[in-house]
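Schema walk-through. Below, the input block comes first and the output block second. Nothing else is stored per chain. Lengths vary across the set, and this one has 123 residues.
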Amino acid sequence: MPVDLPPGVVLLDSVTQTAAEHTGCVVITGSHAGRSVVKYALAVPAKLYVFNDAGVGKDGAGIAALAELEAHGIAAVAVAHASARIGEALDAWQHGVISTVNAPARTLGLAPGQRLSEALAAL
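--- output ---
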């Protein structure tokens, strides 16, 4: 099923699929926002990364990457695990509700409670 995405928005079921051509894009992933995603996000400087909060987890493990990416000036948000399936970027785009944002994402006008597709259309 074809999906009508705004220019510069890409869907990747895993952050490991990021590549140089995604530089400057809004990269919506199906990945959790745990620390293991940081190296992939640092390798490709996107405008914004979108992850799944994976239920947040013990000591915030499911969203730990947001703070680490913030330290590098990279905008990132997580959608609520109850709003979108982990591992499915399309579901995050179609149904995701932002649960967590870092400071660079906040400067883009993103906030918890926003429906992801509507918030990104307003960027």
